[in-house]
Amino acid sequence: MSKHKSFLLPAALMLAALPAAFGSPVISVQTGPLGAGQTFTASIAITGVTGLYAFQFDLGFSRQVINALSITEGAFLPSGGSTFFIPGSINNAAGTITFTADSLLGSGPGVSGSGVLANVLFRGVGQGISPISISNAVALDPNLNPIVIATTDGQSPQIVPEPAGCLLGVSGLLALTLLSKKVRLS
After folding, report:
1. In a domain, 7, yes or no
2. CATH no. for residue 154?
3. Are 119 and 146 in contact (CB under 8 A)?
4. Could you give the CA distance from residue 157 to residue 169 in angstroms, rounded to a whole number?
5. Domain tally for the chain?
6. Residue 150 and residue 19: Cα distance in Å, rounded?
7. What is the pLDDT of residues 145-167, one digit of tens each?
8. Residue among 59, 51, 14 nearest 153 (CA)
9. How do residues 4-17 score in pLDDT, each as one tens digit?
């Protein structure tokens, strides 16, 4: 009996992964390197979708490490025509962005393929790495039927103190040390 129980957990995990393994569209977080002023862009992308007409998602992040500055529409859905983009609501105190949504306007077949749905500009506010998690993700076809999707969370780049700030602090300590030695010699 214990042999059967030990087989059930791996089998259940494999079944849960089947939609992603067999080509379901995936919405994921993709980040780039830190830019000037410790900002970076997280791209919310979709791969392998057929007939995307509208989408919605929420994001969560560690407010002690990063804060969201803005959300802009990606190029993928507008490639199918005019759109109505809702950037969502940024709440840095809670570490959330809620109800980011986009929809094509009018009738049409939707957009197929892979591309960026939205871009989120973040600023590092503390040291470390923040998870960036996707929740409440919905994708719809032109008939407003749900498209089965999977999500893949991401993370921020490593946020570290600015080297210039560290250098300034070390320089200040060195100056104080030299000044204190000069005062003692006098």
Report:
1. no
2. 2.60.40.680
3. no
4. 24
5. 1
6. 8
7. 999 999 999 998 887 766 554 44
8. 59
9. 444 333 443 344 44
